[in-house]
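Sequence design from tokenized structure. All designs in this work follow the same two-part layout: the structure record, then the generated sequence. An example of the structure record is given first.
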């Protein structure tokens, strides 16, 4: 269909933001174009490399009491986040044609304000109570016309799910029940149950986000799915610092190569990652089918315990999807050898030996001793959060027109 506006999705992270122009296809699905831009907050004028956020406990208390006090340091740092996002949108709008109005969706970490257009608590950055409004003001100064105000800020996890549902090649398409694990800077979890996208926040009484759980080594499961976490694991095992690895450009793809070359620490890193990632996927399978089995502990010991009862019990996932940088790594020749194949074997063994799953569920996932190929998918949608943000912006605007 002919678009009379430029649709842009922004994926805002802890250190940078990236944006893409999206297309609405004639078939009704969405895709990203080659028009993209990114900006690191550290490159923006006024950025403070020594910035320290207000302690999270204090942030949450202020939020509960509706008494949020933004510090001068937060205001200054927040201005760099705003400038970075406005810069990206301006670049993309200019490349697409300034005469066309822009529709923007933005995903950002942190707890959102009541109106959804600001950030009222965030672990590793400044609180920005009027983030969307400040961006709109900056765009107006830059001569960029918005088709509609920025409706609300979303989460990268929810936007990963939306991206996988509405992209032409999305992993959630044409399945009824599915789980998605995205591994990038951090981790993102998404669910599709009974044909609908279900945010984890709506089912947090019976299933936990991956970053909330830790293993018997007292390590958060995020360590095994995120790029920085895998690098951290190798640094520990090899007796090196993460800074040293960064200076020599040694990241997960290089660590995979090193494992195949006989590096013992690299080999142990991937062996451990394959085990705990398979255990995480097994936890998802069993939690859906028979309720929380206490396979992991919580990072936050005060986290409310999960209920073993929920409305979706006795169901199986049609598809388990791994996406973002983790999915990309697992598609590489080296990643397949050191992570994908061992993970699939571990998962098949866990399912086969399960005391929780019945024989019908086991045969749903397994063909003989192997995981059925249709149950496990590596997503090629690297920028799922940006596409999800664009789709959400379009859906919000479209619903408001009716």
């Amino acid at each position: 269909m002919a678009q009379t506006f430029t649709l842009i999705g922004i994926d805002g992270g802890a250190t940078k933001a990236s944006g893409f122009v999206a297309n609405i296809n004639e078939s009704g699905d969405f895709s990203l174009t080659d028009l993209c831009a990114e900006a690191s907050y550290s490159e923006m004028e006024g950025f403070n490399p020594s910035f320290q956020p207000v302690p999270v406990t204090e942030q949450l208390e202020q939020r509960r009491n509706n008494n949020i006090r933004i510090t001068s340091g937060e205001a200054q740092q927040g201005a760099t986040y705003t400038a970075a996002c406005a810069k990206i949108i301006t670049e993309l709008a200019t490349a697409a044609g300034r005469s066309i109005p822009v529709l923007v969706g933005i995903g950002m970490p942190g707890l959102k304000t009541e109106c959804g257009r600001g950030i009222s608590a965030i672990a590793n950055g400044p609180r920005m109570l009027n983030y969307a409004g400040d961006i709109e003001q900056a765009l107006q100064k830059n001569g960029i016309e918005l088709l509609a105000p920025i409706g609300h800020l979303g989460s990268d996890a929810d936007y990963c799910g939306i991206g996988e549902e509405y992209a032409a090649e999305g992993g959630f398409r044409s399945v009824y029940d599915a789980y998605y694990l995205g591994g990038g800077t951090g981790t993102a979890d998404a669910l599709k149950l009974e044909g609908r996208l279900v945010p984890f926040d709506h089912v947090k009484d019976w299933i936990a986000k991956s970053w909330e759980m830790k293993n018997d080594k007292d390590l958060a499961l995020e360590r095994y799915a995120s790029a920085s976490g895998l690098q951290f694991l190798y640094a520990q095992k090899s007796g090196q610092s993460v800074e040293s690895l960064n200076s020599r450009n040694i990241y997960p793809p290089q660590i995979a190569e090193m494992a195949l070359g006989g590096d013992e620490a690299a080999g142990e890193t991937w062996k451990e990652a394959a085990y705990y990632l398979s255990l995480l996927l097994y936890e998802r399978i069993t939690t859906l089918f028979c309720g929380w089995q206490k396979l992991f502990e919580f990072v936050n010991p005060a986290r409310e315990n999960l209920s073993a009862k929920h409305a979706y019990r006795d169901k199986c996932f049609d598809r388990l999807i791994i996406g973002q940088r983790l999915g990309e790594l697992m598609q590489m020749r080296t990643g397949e050898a050191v992570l994908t194949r061992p993970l699939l074997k571990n998962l098949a063994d866990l399912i086969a030996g399960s005391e929780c799953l019945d024989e019908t569920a086991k045969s749903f996932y397994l063909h003989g001793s192997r995981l059925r190929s249709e149950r496990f998918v590596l997503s090629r949608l690297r920028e799922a959060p940006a596409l999800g943000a664009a789709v959400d912006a379009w859906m919000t605007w479209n619903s408001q027109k009716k």
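The longest strand covers residues 30-40. We note this feature because it recurs in several other targets discussed in the main text.
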